[in-house]
Write a structure and sequence with these properties.
- The protein has 6 helices and 7 strands; from the N terminus they run H-H-E-E-H-H-E-E-E-E-E-H-H.
- It starts with a helix and ends with a helix.
- The radius of gyration is 24 Å and the shape is elongated.
- It is of the alpha+beta class.
- The mean pLDDT is about 80.
- The chain has a 3-stranded antiparallel β-sheet, with no helix packed on it.
- The longest helix is centred in the N-terminal third of the chain and has 17 residues.
- Helix 2 runs antiparallel to helix 3.
Length: about 190
């Protein structure tokens, strides 16, 4: 808001200077400080402690096996464990994880290339900014987890790393954290 006000003031005073009403534009030296990366209450974002992250990874393997059989003997796959490990160690946004393709991962080089994202309507598209297109180093745990997941992952027309059960873009509702809370609440 402050930037907009200063920009408008600079424009108004610039026009006044052009018309000869003032000698110089005093607003040209005005600058607005950049915003701090904090929430509305002035507190910084609190990340989970390392112990909780380690517990999430350890418990996720037992809570959500990559491959299991249901009561009818059908083989089911579950992407929560590899998704959690990838999210923790890469810091990728939920939309980037949802739009991640197998072709964007280089296991030998230990890199994940972020080239697209899935929006809230499950449409794949470019990241919102140039900074969104980046290469992220892949920890050995992530590379091994994704290699294992690739063997079990259902193939999709889009070549998604984390498809839904219907083999489409998976929906990750930010308000529904039951999948991430579960490992911490079970003994």
């Amino acid at each position: 808001m402050a930037r907009r006000v200063v920009t408008s003031l600079k424009g108004i005073l610039g026009e006044a200077q052009r018309r000869g009403l003032i000698a110089h534009n005093p607003a040209m030296v005005a600058k607005v400080a950049k915003r701090r990366e904090e929430d509305e209450e002035g507190e910084s974002i609190q990340l989970p402690p390392k112990a909780h992250l380690k517990l999430m990874i350890a418990k996720s393997a037992e809570l959500w096996p990559t491959v299991r059989k249901n009561s009818r003997g059908e083989v089911l796959t579950c992407c929560w464990r590899p998704l959690i490990a990838t999210a923790i160690f890469t810091g990728m946004r939920a939309s980037e994880l949802r739009g991640l393709l197998w072709s964007n991962g280089e296991f030998d080089a230990g890199l994940i290339r972020v080239r697209q994202r899935a929006d809230r309507y499950n449409r794949l598209g470019m990241p919102k900014s140039k900074a969104g297109r980046r290469e992220i180093p892949m920890a050995p745990l992530v590379a091994n987890t994704l290699r294992e997941w690739k063997l079990a992952c259902p193939t999709t027309a889009l070549d998604l790393v984390f498809p839904s059960e219907r083999r489409e873009v998976i929906w990750l509702d930010p308000s529904d954290l039951r999948y991430l809370r579960a490992p911490l609440s079970k003994p």
